[in-house]
Amino acid sequence: MAISFDNAFGIHPAAIKVRSERAELLSSNLANADTPGYKARDIDFKAALANAVSGQQQGMSLERTSDKHLAASLGLDPAVGYRNPNQPDTGDGNTVDAQVERSLFMQNALEYQTSVQFLGGKIKGLMSAIKGE
After folding, report:
1. What residues make up the domain containing 120?
2. What was the pLDDT predicted at 74?
3. Taking the model in full, what pTM does it have?
4. Is there a domain that residue 86 lies in?
5. Residue 81, pLDDT score
6. pLDDT tens, position by position, for the chain (133 residues)?
7. Out of 14, 33, 68, 99, which residue is the most buried by the measure of CB atoms under 10 Å away?
8. Is the distance from CB of 23 to CB of 105 less than 8 angstroms?
9. Name one GO cellular component term (predicted).
């Protein structure tokens, strides 16, 4: 009997990928907290996860006019957008609120760790089943 890893792991591998991408964006926001004109960005987790689970390619791809051309992506992810600022304009056009970003980063990290622990438990269960324990 074959083991279907897709059925065994569910959406957690896709969730880990999206959470990792979100962590990059949130850390970029924190790094640019003092950059004039920087706009805070975030991922619409629900939309990004739906794209990842359905296997849709994120972003826009370039048309290949020859088989010798390398495949490329423009890297424009429709699930990534600018966050509406919670604070009044500080005069420099920056919309990053460092406290909000830290809070969102920690929440994202906890949810990432939850998915990793769930997958670890599933893998241990599969290993026990394979070994006949």
Report:
1. 11-33+95-132
2. 44
3. 0.75
4. no
5. 87
6. 566 777 778 888 889 999 999 999 999 999 999 999 999 999 998 888 888 888 755 554 556 677 777 665 545 466 788 888 777 777 888 999 999 999 999 999 999 999 999 999 989 988 898 898 7
7. 14
8. yes
9. bacterial-type flagellum basal body, rod
Q: Based on the structure, what is the number of domains in the chain?
A: 1
Tokens 């699930």 correspond to: 79
Residue 48: how many other CB atoms lie within 10 Å: 22
- Residue 16 belongs to a domain: yes
Backbone phi, psi, residue 81, to 5°: -145, 175
Nearest to 29 by CA among 100, 92, 101: 101
In a domain, 17, yes or no: yes
22: Cβ–Cβ under 8 A, 6 or more apart, which residues?
42, 43, 45, 48, 108
- Alpha helices (runs of H) in the chain, residue ranges in sequence order: 5-9, 12-31, 45-54, 98-131
Neighbours of 76 (CB within 10 A): 10
Using a 10 angstrom Cβ sphere, with 0-12 exposed, 13-18 middle and 19 or more buried, the burial of residue 36 is: exposed
Residue 112: how many other CB atoms lie within 10 Å: 17
Q: Which amino acid is at 62?
A: L
